[in-house]
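Reviewer 2 asked us to include a model.

Predict the structure of this chain.
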Amino acid sequence: DLKREDLVASLLVALAKDENEAMKTFAAFITPILRHLSPYQLETVGIDQKQIPGIVRMYHEDGWEDLPSNVFSLGVVGIEGCMKAFSEVADAGFVHAKFGGPLGPDKEMAMRIFAKKVMPLCG
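Predicted model (structure tokens):
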């Protein structure tokens, strides 16, 4: 008996003054938990569970810059990413959205960026 208005879209967000720093923070957060994500979450961004060991190895050996872009699709990186995600969850019919960790390399700064640059545009 769940109603759409009772559901909350939960988004992993990484924000920073420098978008590369936000991406680096997101990669450090998501890589260790990839194996804990549901097959559905992974499938929606085109990751097969069999790929996870290789992705994790790539992160440890080559760094975040060489990760496949679909890894970053598991969350929201940057101000434009936040705006796009907010629009997508609203279009999907969600009334509530939770934007949460990893937040960014400087969590206080990430919250200020979110409050000043994202929230005003979310209506």
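The beta strands are 8-14, 76-77, 96-103. The chain has a mean pLDDT of 91. We have added this to the supplementary material.
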